[in-house]
Amino acid sequence: MGAGMGRSGTSGGGLLEALPTGTPLHVAMLGLDSAGKTTALYRLKFDQYLNTVPTIGFNCERIRGGIGKAKGVNFLVWDVGGQEKLRPLWKSYTRCTDGIIFVVDSCDSERLEEAKMELTRTARSPDNAGVPILILANKQDLPVSRRRPLDDCRCERSKRIGKAPGCIGIGRYSR
Predict the structure, then answer these.
(1) Which of 54, 31, 38, 50 is nearest to 135 (CA)?
(2) Which residues are annotated as a binding site for Mg(2+)?
(3) Out of 35, 54, 82, 109, which could bridge 103 as a Cys pair, Cβ 3.0 to 4.6 Å?
(4) In 3-state terms, what secondary structure has residue 61?
(5) For binding Mg(2+), which residues are annotated in this chain's numbering (predicted)?
(6) Residue 83 is a catalytic residue
């Protein structure tokens, strides 16, 4: 599955230099229910906000990178439902994936510990060894959002790699 970018051992800034422009990279988008995974997916795909409904199962979209070092890179993004009963299925989507985007709801401070637990479980899975994990702090545009939700969700070996413009924040889980 995918082009193998995630298991190349590349870390940090060198990750983007290793992106192939031919074969699509397979990316699993995970996170608790109502974190905004589907909204983020369609924001990436169509560059606009769309009304969405809770995902039961998955959504899959091809996205072509349009800026910076990701320009011209093709991604096949699997947005997987985050309801508790669906979480055991996540491993089916992360097995042999090139990358994982873990979406955290910046407004839901009551569930940050649960999000951290699921992120840790995902990151520690032997199937995900060497797979880069991007943590996306969603809903940063809302007044009740926590400005630094990733501080509570990051694990001991994580590294902040920057800020995203607009309403999302990013971080990377390092193994």
Answers:
(1) 31
(2) 38, 55
(3) 35
(4) strand
(5) 38, 55
(6) yes
